[in-house]
Amino acid sequence: MKKLLRWNTLRFLLTKLYHSKLILILSIYLLLRSSINIIGGVIHQNVIESDIASLLLGMLVLFIYVKARRNNAFQK
Fold first, then answer.
1. Local structure of residue 18 (DSSP, 8 states)
2. What is the value of pTM for the model shown?
3. In the chain, domain spans
4. What average pLDDT does range 41-58 have in this prediction?
5. Transmembrane residues, as ranges (predicted)?
6. How open is the CA angle 40-42-45, to the nearest 5 degrees?
């Protein structure tokens, strides 16, 4: 039940932010910030799990956004 609620909340937020560029900017920022933190962590040998999770979340949001845009473009 909680997973369904989380998925519905994520889907709701993505549809609300679909036409704004804010979700795209935020996901790119999240990807860049976590990538820099991971590279710095590899250099200093202390990669934090939250950086990896942030990277994966940013990739997921960007993938969903691009997929939704692509599906919408083909429907027109």
1. S
2. 0.59
3. 22-75
4. 83
5. 12-32, 52-68
6. 105
